[in-house]
């Protein structure tokens, strides 16, 4: 009997039990839907994050000093160790195109004219090229030594009257004193510019380390800030080495190009200098404080590892659901074989070979599996789509998983149907015809 | 008319061993000539169904030889036996045994499906046979939308669809009332007249009387064979009055060839 005929006959018996068939496929539907939804979400999440690393950023290497045993993301356990002299010296090392510090200055509020809004995120004090030209929607980068700032759209739009280029803002620092800055540029996105900030959207104000961070450190006699994500890095006042000398929590170096060899060269060069006697940082470095340099991609890798782990977990659960689903199909197929014993007997009496009967029941199980897989895929894609919409991510359909899902449906059908179909095939027609 | 043998049993024994061995058939020898009409009678448990299962290639003998379509059933592999069953034998059961989800046409065409005959050809052949059993207008009906007599006619059409060497009917009218019983038996007569070999199990004398001869079974052996002197020419058994009413064979013969066309050619 040709496969098309098996398909026709099997489809007929599935339609004969619509509700039962629908319920049977439910386990497969749920399992496949879960996998597809989470894989779609995961892929979208990944694309969303990777998409945030612009080509310029790929040249950047992010460094901070922490206990080598500290686990966590960027700046985890970071201590302020880098002096402005260190930064300048690193910048002049071979293979290093540029180097600048990174620190956050804690603030209470920002005023535009007489309108004041709370601003807990603080100011991000860093080098001018931290805001890459390509990320500027308007204006220019701030310059070292000037009281200038670049703001992101979220920061610009938080006032009733939107901030524009040339506006003067007044910032209240955490200690209470005020300082002013002139807005010279607005970025094109409210998402973070580097892994130090995190990638979520929030109001941010970028300023030059000199004068803001230098004044801040001198004024308070401390060398560090906090990145605002809860790292306990406020301590540091005790290192009175260079009084009033600002120490930076983090350093960003630029390699000559995004090529891995250039990045590695820049990283080695900077590390070698900072660990040598010549650097100010080396006074503080030791067994329990070492410099770490990582690219965005490397930092993201950790996040991706977590995502992959989560995905594997979900896929594991889905696999259990698929197993349950296939047991469901096998069970229904066994019932169906028993119910249709007489039909099997009739078919055999009129010349059906064992393999014909086997083929019929196997086809039926595979149809159930594939229907489940198709419905599950549709449902999963819808779920992934809604999820991605909700978290505002670019949607990525993992098409290879859709093909895989259909394949799994077929496989589940075959596995679930094999034993029942074998039972059907070896039914003795004489017994079967007597069967009531 | 010289006749070949459609089915032959040679000293056949069938023994069931469930505790005490039961000899369902105990040394049966019988030759069924092509084109003949044989009835088998005997009390319950005398081995009638066992004999039908053997001739129908559903079962193999414990000893002796069953030859169907020229081939020894007992020595064949399961696959060959199944093929023989599909092509050389047509079954008509007491309980009809139609596929409940297939309509009349599909039921009739089913045996051809397993022979790999293509759909268009199957449907044409099935439609032709349905017309010949008088159900041309019921082709799309499901079995549960048909009366008992109609169902048995569908079953008969199905039995004939592969142009078998022999039609086996085990109490074909056991579930029918008197009138429909007469109808189906008339159809048997018509197809027999057209050359089909019939082997009918019954425990009713008036059913057996339609045959050329009656084989009486008792305790697994042939007690006696009763020749009904109906002549060897099957055509003489047909009641002419009935024949014109529902008979499909006259026009069918001229149009598409009867199920016995091959048989007649073979026997020459
Ligand atoms: N599958 C079987 N297992 C054991 N005994 C059987 C089986 N089939 C038939 N028999 C026995 O064989 C004998 C003949 O049975 P059967 O051919 O069905 O008789 P009939 O059809 O004439 O009533 C009976 O005694 C019956 O009990
Ligand atoms: Mg019986």
Automatic annotation (TrEMBL), chain A:
Keywords: Cell membrane, Membrane, Transmembrane, Transmembrane helix. This is ABC transporter permease. The keyword Cell membrane applies. It is a multi-pass membrane protein. It holds the Pfam family MacB_PCD. Residues 21-257 form the MacB-like periplasmic core domain. The keyword Membrane applies. InterPro entries: ABC3_permease_C, MacB_PCD, Macrolide_Exporter_MacB. Belongs to the ABC-4 integral membrane protein family. PANTHER family: ABC TRANSPORTER PERMEASE YTRF, MEMBRANE COMPONENT OF TRANSPORTER-RELATED. GO terms for molecular function: transmembrane transporter activity. Residues 220-240 have a biased composition (Gly residues). Residues 317-429 form the ABC3 transporter permease C-terminal domain. The chain crosses the membrane at residues 21-45, 313-337, 357-381, 401-422. Residues 218-240 are annotated as: Disordered. One of its GO terms (cellular component) is plasma membrane. It is found in: Cell membrane.
TrEMBL record, chain B:
One of its GO terms (molecular function) is ATP binding. One of its GO terms (cellular component) is membrane protein complex. The keyword Heme does not apply. Residues 228-268 are annotated as: Disordered. Residues 7-244 form the ABC transporter domain. Keywords: ATP-binding, Nucleotide-binding, Transport. PROSITE patterns: ABC_TRANSPORTER_1, ABC_TRANSPORTER_2. The keyword Cell membrane does not apply. This is ABC transporter-related protein. It comes from Natrinema pallidum DSM 3751.
